[in-house]
Amino acid sequence: GGGMASCRRLSGAGLREVLGPAQGLLFDCDGVLWAGERAVPGAPELLERLRRSGKAAFFVSNNSRRSVAELERRFSRLGFRGVRAEHVFSSALCSALFLRQRLLGPGGTGNGGARVFVLGGEGLRGEVRDAGLRLAGEGEPAPGAAEPVRAVLVGYDDQFTFAKLAQACGYLRDPQCLLVATDPDPWHPLSDGQRTPGTGSLTAAVETASGRKALVVGKPSTYMFDCIVERFGIDPSRTLMVGDRLETDILFGKNCGLSTILTLTGVSRLEEAQAYMASDSAAAKDLVPNYYVDSIADLIPGLDE
Amino acid sequence: AALPGPAPADWAQAPLDPAVRAVLVGFDEHFSYAKLCQALRYLLRGGPDCLLVGTNRDHRLPLEGGTAIPGTGCLVKAVETAAQREAFIVGKPNRYMFDCVVSEFNIDPARTIMVGDRLDTDILMGNSCGLTTLLTLTGVTTLEEVRAHQESDCPSRHSLVPDYYVDSIADLLPALGD
Questions:
Q1: Which CATH architecture has domain B108-173?
Q2: What's one GO-annotated cellular component (chain A) (predicted)?
Q3: How high is the ipTM of this complex?
Q4: Which is nearest to A62 in space by CA: A234, A269, A304, A244?
Q5: B8-89 falls under which CATH superfamily?
Q6: A158 is known as an active-site residue
Q7: Which chain B residue has the Cα nearest residue A191?
């Protein structure tokens, strides 16, 4: 929506006014539907009620560790019923789709030898393979020895090393080689309140060494929304974005023309949203959600019985 | 110490050394995600009481034959991004090392020349510290790059322009007495 967001608590009549006209909701996953290995209380019931109300639910996650198949199993394991794989958009999947588009062309068949050097785990690597791309191996000989590596993809890589950083830079000396990052997240919360470094920190290392800027697929970039629209043709003016991280989820919603709801079960605190609202900077205003709730379970009363 | 398990969630359970008061990032060809995790843990535990220091910000270390490997600056950037804070940088172009020299040797910047081959470290530091700066062309910088900075409209690029240049420091010999 247009105009400045004002971070209003969503409850009572306001809840029905906002949810009533909505045709669909986009949900971030970590910190919204679940925290670690526990579903947010009431979240499975909310998704069930959305389905009964005839509203669509899509899932948009910056987490590039998991393939869509793994995410589907996770939903099931944590008590969410009836989530369909085609409604789940992870940055791993969308990065693979992005690379397929850019390297294999609109038909998905051009230059079948195109190889991608992936800094990431098996979930990410699998999505790239499933998109019809080939992976460059680790510790390979110098660039130019085999078919050229056409892209370096930086994802969440808990096996990241200096050697892999050097190898990535070798490929990036070719200006035709793309540099793509699954997401910009600087860190992720662990269940005990600590943090683990995110893809953003690894991307910063690759950008610094190569002198290149990465194309970032994940939120707040709108690419994942484009993937959803291409598959399902949704109307942004009738769709809500629900997330826990102001700098990714809420900015993503703003960038895609969606009204946004911040849920407080994850990374961002209400005080941070209010600080952005009080800031003079125009960029800060884009991080202010239209609404907030303590948890997505608070949305249930806004749906028809 | 061995990692207590295969995943970051396990590594985050390893005991932290209570005496650690600073994270120092230097050139580390064994840099890894696990070390980055540990650095982040110390910085979060200590907050402003744990220093974050980088030896330098060089993007690349040139090797013979024209290739290069990633420089310390990449590793510093990774830690800064994860921790969302800025490191104190000891190396050029920051002035800390010059201040160390001055405090030990009482030199007069107006009568001191900085000789280097990199504009964004050597020459920038020299200019910032009030030294006369001399670029030698035996290293990474070409004269064309200097001209580009000189002709730029951007004032900060003018700080990268040396006062003088030589093809090699051997060219200084004739000026020195017998």
A1: 3-Layer(aba) Sandwich (3.40)
A2: ruffle membrane
A3: 0.94
A4: A244
A5: HAD superfamily/HAD-like (3.40.50.1000)
A6: no
A7: B9
